[in-house]
Amino acid sequence: MFNDFRTEGESPAYIQLKVYIETLIMQGVMPLHHKLPSTRELAGLLGVSRTTVISAYEALERTGWIEAVKGRGNFVSRAVAHLEEPPGMIDWKERLGRRALLSEEMDLMKHGIKWEKGMIAFTSIAPDEKLFDMGGVKRAFLDRMALEGDVLLNYGYAQGYRPLMQYLMSYMRGKGVEAKGKDILITNGFTEGFDLVLTAIGRRTGRILCENPTHQTAIKIMKLHGFEPVGVRMEQDGMDMEELRRVLGEGGFDLAYLTPSYHNPTGIVTSPEKRMELLRLLGEHEVPVVEDGFNEELRYSGAHAAPLIACAGTGNSVAYIGSFSKILFPGIRVGWIVADGGLIGYLESLKRARTIHTSTLDQALLFQYLHNGNFERYLKRARTEYKRKYELAIRGCREHIPMKSMSGEGGLHVFVELDESLDARSVLEECRARGVVFTPGDIFFTDGGGRHTMRIGFSRVPEERIEEGLRIIGGVVNKQLKASGR
Amino acid sequence: MFNDFRTEGESPAYIQLKVYIETLIMQGVMPLHHKLPSTRELAGLLGVSRTTVISAYEALERTGWIEAVKGRGNFVSRAVAHLEEPPGMIDWKERLGRRALLSEEMDLMKHGIKWEKGMIAFTSIAPDEKLFDMGGVKRAFLDRMALEGDVLLNYGYAQGYRPLMQYLMSYMRGKGVEAKGKDILITNGFTEGFDLVLTAIGRRTGRILCENPTHQTAIKIMKLHGFEPVGVRMEQDGMDMEELRRVLGEGGFDLAYLTPSYHNPTGIVTSPEKRMELLRLLGEHEVPVVEDGFNEELRYSGAHAAPLIACAGTGNSVAYIGSFSKILFPGIRVGWIVADGGLIGYLESLKRARTIHTSTLDQALLFQYLHNGNFERYLKRARTEYKRKYELAIRGCREHIPMKSMSGEGGLHVFVELDESLDARSVLEECRARGVVFTPGDIFFTDGGGRHTMRIGFSRVPEERIEEGLRIIGGVVNKQLKASGR
């Protein structure tokens, strides 16, 4: 006993000693009522200070493991009662429902593209953390904590932290949204927002209209909720309207899920005319819309189109889900839904039943950061940086990759369509061997198509490596084109 | 135009001017290509500095509302295109599914007890924010941000922030949990943890075994997932084992949901013997267990029983959901599940599909706070404070409220059973008129019972008002007893 105790790592010695003794008790080495060595004795035995032993004993007493008896010493006061025979093992997998199994199967972090450090990874569209404005974040935290730290740390409201709600409503008003009759709900990012809406919506036809290709996480969430995503082909200015009309004519939809700006994965911005036409057609067929405001802020040129929810004016058919994750800080999970006030009321109750509320601390930090006027400054800087990378990516793709077409008017990625004889996954395999990875486009398609497409995310690739990476991809594409006889 | 512009509130004048002009554009008062007044002119007109106007114009230009044409001035560059005729209104309520409607119906924040400021509210069991250790929180934030602020603000992992996961696993080991074969998932508090498990579990019998009464939020979540909670009567040392045997004999259960320590609402601590017996019986019937670790830390006396997951030893049938919300900071939504490693893998994928991950900033803040050694110090202080209130509450109830029985061995509330002729809701009504509210017990019962019970939460009632409040309740109970002829 005690002869294998060694302190290691950075946690305080007394904590390590406490854990060590706990283990001895748990393993039955020190049974109930066993007397512990005196603090002086143990300090000598272990070669640690007596204070360390005293602190460890005190901590063990506080957590109920030992008991100090005046004048007699310290005694083990807890027997860890295990069942003599642990209950039979549960086969958890066999107990799980469809949704758990499917979520694992569709989990790209588990079954997606793997890469190693040092590779050029065009797989991410997360923001570049080197751009983060740490000073602004610290200031915002300290400012808000000084004002109402106790409020931030206690329970908040499911709908959200009021100053942030007000800020974002006014931000949405600034995008042209008619606020009357609408309300806002703060969520744990886009993902929770979309999940809440799909939890709320009843299944009638079980079909959701969307762009094809579309956001892979959205496809996953739709399928997990038992909805079938029905995609409509994308053209350079948005959905193919002929196909949309045909699909709408073929049967009802419970919902449409649309990303009109910097669409993921194609980077396409739907034109103002198509936005209007979309709203008109979906209105005629009484299909409500979930608008994904994804990256709307990452506009590199002057052109800007109002979001669908603004185009709909006083209409209530569009629910807009927003997030600054791809621009500000994805690590703090804050997004929002602006929609019909009645709908928001139900989503609020669902949210309360699911996560009580989004971290008030995060909401307050974000609010104060915005309120301090950091957002526009930061956005300006981020746009400049990303624009430079964007232009490098566009130029690099054009110069080096033989392709059928390319899209991407902004955002953090471009989308490349190769010759149809090629398989992007086989291109990927060769590229990986040469130290470059990207996202094969097929995961974004609702109909099993897109095997010859790829998404090139550039936000986290260092500027000086963008061209290098694209040249390597181009080399592999050329090689495989030759092999296929084109 | 411009004559109704006034700055108000604390947001910078240029932002207010920007919003004002946006509104003029949105409302069509300033149409496309309309020329804005010069900055000098507008500054004079509004009585603001020229810098304010210049900043507002710059912000409008950045967000695409106006365009500066060299030598000619500023022009409206965006027409807010609304549909001439907004699409038809959607009747959202009619589009919603059972779950959204039920979550609203069962939403206590919407349909629960209302009270006004100044009343003595025994309704809350949230921690007392006056106890919050703000200095420790600030230090933890600054410490961690200095170490790896950029990592905290970018995307993290669904399973959790590694240092926190490790800390909590070792914390659970300290409670006697055998870690081998188990793993941990960080969640947005208990609520998300329980919701994830119920999302994952397939419905076979659709029945969940639980204590009667039990946590109202848990009842809500079970019902929202289409499970029927089947409650077993509580005795002073845990479930009535006879009833448990009978109920288990009557038919299968998909799960058991149990709160062995400081059970909500009764405050009962299940005895070590009953814990073992529970595990044995549930094991025989192959019923897996979700253990709610609720308030396990709020032990005011020496007695302490190991959690079920520790008692189960190497068995894998217990999934433990923990949270420090009622002790540390509920505003940052961090909880955890420790369970069979295979199960955690599926829950992780579900979590990723639902909220990506829990705020890394919050996890890191909590980790650093714990790592800095604040927890035990804080817990000691909180226990001392709450224990005083607990004793006041126990004494006050005994002295002033005529009752059949009372329970509560710790935690932040006690549970009172009145004479069965009484209706706690009618007691509540009279009490509210006298400035005191509490939680009527019926909401915690799975079988419509408990109409003569009440939960008295004392954590947020100032010490000096606890007795006063209980005396008022006692007065009303006495009055209603007399009226009922007892």
Automatic annotation (TrEMBL), chains A, B:
Q: Does the keyword Transcription regulation apply?
A: yes
One function term, GO molecular function aspect: transaminase activity
Q: Where is the HTH gntR-type domain?
A: 11-79
What Gene3D superfamilies does its record include? Aspartate Aminotransferase, domain 1 (3.90.1150.10), Type I PLP-dependent aspartate aminotransferase-like (Major domain) (3.40.640.10), Winged helix-like DNA-binding domain superfamily/Winged helix DNA-binding domain (1.10.10.10)
Q: Which Pfam families match?
A: Aminotran_1_2 (PF00155), GntR (PF00392)
Q: Which family does it belong to?
A: In the C-terminal section; belongs to the class-I pyridoxal-phosphate-dependent aminotransferase family.
For activity, the cofactor(s) needed are: pyridoxal 5'-phosphate
Protein name, please? Answer: PLP-dependent aminotransferase family protein
Keywords carried by this UniProt record: Aminotransferase, DNA-binding, Pyridoxal phosphate, Transcription, Transcription regulation, Transferase
This protein's species is Saccharibacillus alkalitolerans
> InterPro entries in the record, alphabetically?
Aminotransferase_I/II_large, HTH_trans_reg/aminotransferase, PyrdxlP-dep_Trfase, PyrdxlP-dep_Trfase_major, PyrdxlP-dep_Trfase_small, Tscrpt_reg_HTH_GntR, WH-like_DNA-bd_sf, WH_DNA-bd_sf
